Amino acid sequence: MDRSSTQGQTDPAERPARVVTLTAGDFTLTVNPVDGSEIEPTHRPGGEPARIPTKRAPAARASRAAAARPPVPPGAPAGPRPLFGREEERERLVRLLGRGRSVRLTGPCGSGRTALLDAVADACADLAPDGVVRLSAHGHQQPGELLHALYDTVYEASADRPERAELLARVRGIGAVVLLDDLDMGGPALDELLRATPECAYLLAATPDTRAPSEDSHLEEVFLGGLSHADCLALLEAGIGRTLIEAETAWAADLRFASEGLPLRFVQAAALLRRRDELNRSDSEDEHEEPGVFDERPREAAFVPLPTLAEGAAPAELLASRVSESARAALRIACALGGELPHHAHLPALVGDTHADTAVGELLACGLLSPVGTRYRLAAGVARQLEEAGYGDTAAEEARTAARHYAWWTGHTSVTPERVAAEADAVLAALAGADVVAAVLLARTAAPAFAASLHWEAWERVLRSGAEAARKAGEVAEQAYFHHELGVLALCEGRLDRARAELETSIGLRGALADKRGTVAGRRALALVTDRETAGVEVSPPLRLAPPVAGAAGAAGSAFGGPSGPGAVGAVGSAGPVGAAGVVRASGSSRSSGAQGAPVSAVSGVTPLSTVVLPVAADPAAAEAVTTVVPALAPAGSVSASTLAEVFEDAFPIAPEPEPVLPASGPKHESSRKKVLLAVAGALTVVALGTVVALAMSASDEAAPPAQGPGFSTAPTTGPAQSSPSDPGTSGNDPSPDPGASSSAPAAAVSEEPGATPSARKSPSRKPSATPRSSAPVDPPVTPSASQSSGSPSPSSSESPSGSPTTSPPASVTP
Question: Model-level pTM?
């Protein structure tokens, strides 16, 4: 058979790619999973304007609303849960929405906000011309995607994604009651959403920790608290299908006090009591009959008591222990995916059980799951309780298994992009927990599906995750693909700077790989970026950042000693250029900043410092910022004493120490020079103070001579003190007189010359004579002669030959 006869007979499941063509503003986008998306201007014959889409009919809106609800799990259908204790809130919300007012419904997790929204939706079906629109804001922090979701719900535009100006013009004419669950935004973002749709009445369900709206939003606030005691008992009885006994009523009262009456806790408590009834066989009709051979019930059933209050407040572990093995495996997968539970059609492949799809209904009846948009998630607090019980120990393995499964599923041609978009949160969670190889494969297959389904927020997230995983895995070709797609996405959204950066990166990588087709596609997209920049097309507004305060940089520079002239621009939030590389130099070392104009906060090799970033000049030639380094501590040796004790300790040390040597050259910085000069001035002050103290001590010595010399043991004189000022005294270093010498000979006296000034670094003790110690017996005391000065006693003969002075009790002076 020739090749031409086999063309067109390939199995659709084996086709390598699916190509989808979309309209994104003024561009025609062709999503090509092989070589990358191709973008080109939309050519309309004769320059005719774009076709205005029409609104959906009521029947089409009803079918779309049914498709937007969570899927019904297989198994026995469970009836809708009754709504207890919310009649007053429901009537108030319907009344406010009927008047065209927007309301913010605030309540803690598990308070029944979603159930109340369902009841309000049924009552408001005919209030607005465009009906009721149910949206989920879970994970959305920007209003752009919510506006696109609202536009796609009301208008028939499956392959059209308008640009920002066109989108705002079309949603302005929508008149509907919009029920927005799981709101995760507030402030200016919420104000933008409300201003873009003035003809819509919003019912916004949020938790108390969500950012509050601004004062100009004019939203009505309705708080949803817990249920009353009677409503809690009614909800519990409706869940178990019988009347409560006295012990169960008391247990329910304690549980209401512990849980503040949250309806979710009583739904879970009803599941605990139902399982307890099954174990105790209290609800079986043949309780007194003997069980058969094939009966699963034990012959001797043990009585199961009521759960404790702690188990009722945190029942996830106890409920999980009483469900099937497939349901527990599904809980492990949900813990690994950050609380996201895959569609029940994926559970047989993920768990390995053909009947694992029934686990969703089982977990939903237990209150372990909550509906979020078109899917199910673990209920509030369940993920934390299960992780503490050990369900998150195999999270890494479960995430890798889910990533490989989704990589196969999203790349299969039989799976429509809409089905992939409905599973976006689980796919992104699996991508975050997968290894680099599985992450690259999953991102490569899921990105075209998200682009084709117009779920561009998920498209951008998966592209960024895929680019990072490809970089870590060393897959240059895949990395080039992801950067090309990011550039095309930025071009479609009007972010021209981002588009140019991403496309140039992709062209460089593909040029290194000699990929001609990919390089040509990238250059075509880059040419469109250049054309729009040349034409001066208005780009999309940037992120909402607070504008820099005028004069803030100058005030900061003046406070830290920097210039604050009119020609200086602050380094942080400045409008002037920072340089090609954005480098801030400090003390000879440079370090690139993370963002344009961000100052470097640390310099290597310098210990505690106070850095001051000088403002960047507006002149590009002097665009490098200079960081002035000011030491927070003075240099070593120049720190002045802070107490009087330290001053005297430096002036009169106990042991001799060398004089401090001042540095030959001064410090480089002017601030350090000032500190050194201050330290030298302090030292000079200390020396002057020591000199004054020494002179005072010398004057006191001249006025009243001491009775004994310093550092020598003396004995008091017995005779009157007679001294002749004309007799010179002997030096203290002279040897002792001979024992045979006349008593009239002048004795060895130790005295200082009058007017001598002691040194500031001199020890108060004198060095004694080096005369060896005498072994002769001590003579009786001898009275000094009249010619001997009473203030100059001779040294004792018991002095150590080593020269160290000793202090002995009073003794007689040896001759």
Answer: 0.64
